[in-house]
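Shipment paperwork, digital attachment
Item: protein structure file
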Amino acid sequence: MKARLTVSALALALLAAACGQEAPAPVPENPNARPVDPATAGSITGRITFTGTPPVPETLRMGTDAACVQGAGPNPVSNAVLIGDEGALENVFVHIRDGLDPDYSFEVPAEEVILDQRGCVYTPRVLGIRMGQTLKVLNSDPTMHNVHALPMENLEFNKSTPVQGSSTTAVFTVPEVMVRFMCNVHGWMAAWVGVKEHPYFDVAGPDGTFTLEGVPPGTYTIEAWHEKFGTQTATVTIGEGQAETVSFTFTNQS
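Attachment content:
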């Protein structure tokens, strides 16, 4: 009898997992939650660079959709790897991975984070968002797109943005670095969204720099993520009101 009950329980668990429709359990409220004291907070800044021979940019085959060809211009290439002056590496997601006291509380921003489908690419390609914050995805192209998110921890979704000016929204409930976005209509479209429970994240811009502000004193693991070159980590200790710097250098491992 015990064996039959075990098998039945396992079958039910597998069935529930296969359905994949249940939302992740909400995080319980922390009775010890407290805000960060701005009088003692510091900052972490840095720069991301690339060294070595960069990969050859991939040509985007947009000829199947005349609207994409018109919007993107001639000979479009992937923006997965963007290297600027003095090796500055763009689109690197930098965040505090470990070390933050779980008793700190952070208000979720009310404003939406915008991800645009423009020129038949996602813009920006890499972004960060808070748990519980609204992501709004716009279709700025005169053609049909869809928004297909492929998370590992949050719920997968696939929503249409059928005409120019249409949009859809989503909210993530679990921290996850990173959530991949695609478009099933245009297979070259890609974006990556980092979901964090705290505000200490940034995306390196064209000059490769990033800033994490208002960080409470402590010792932290800082992670830098790039979709092609992987991740790197560094340990940073911040005293009261201190400004610390950390840099990361990536190279092509292929």
